[in-house]
Design goal:
The protein has about 140 residues and is of the alpha/beta class. It has helices at about 10-20, 35-40, 60-70, 90, 105-120, and strands at about 1-5, 25-30, 45-50, 75-80, 95-100. The chain has one domain: Rossmann fold, CATH 3.40.50.2300. Helix 4 links the parallel strand 4 and strand 5 (about 95-100).
Length: about 140
């Protein structure tokens, strides 16, 4: 299964990607909006994991493009903000399948990705996490 992780903190993003890869996912780490948009332009994903509080990032633009490119994509939202605790994020981003409060345990994230990604996904052999556009 192909997973795009949008997380501005590279250390956290790498922890999530590494854990997902150990579960068999192929991951791409994007630290900002431009990198996420570029990843979505050139590859289809089964799951999008996105931190709502990514600085200088339009979460709606990324989620809209992801849904356009892969209509069945499962979107998992991560945030430390309690603003969306009423569930309104599910109305704002229609393909949202899960909502996790930060800090996120990698096992919890992996279980949610596996559960929601199975219905959306193509299964693939594990790949190495990388930041798109970096060397």
């Amino acid at each position: 299964m192909y997973v795009l992780v949008v997380e501005s903190n590279e250390a956290i993003g790498r922890i999530w990607c590494d854990h997902l890869e150990r579960q068999g996912a192929v991951t791409v780490l994007a630290k900002d909006e431009e990198t996420a948009i570029n990843a979505l332009r050139f590859q289809c994903f089964d799951v999008l994991v996105i931190n709502l509080l990514t600085p200088n990032c339009s979460v709606l633009s990324i989620s809209d493009l992801a849904t356009y490119r892969s209509p069945e994509i499962a979107i998992i939202v991560v945030t430390s903000n309690s603003f969306f605790s009423d569930g309104s994020i599910f109305d704002i981003i229609p393909n949202t399948r899960g909502f996790l409060n930060s800090p996120v345990a990698p096992d919890d994230l992996a279980a949610m990705v596996e559960h929601y990604g199975q219905s959306a996904g193509r299964f693939a052999k594990s790949g190495r996490a990388r930041a798109v556009g970096s060397s």
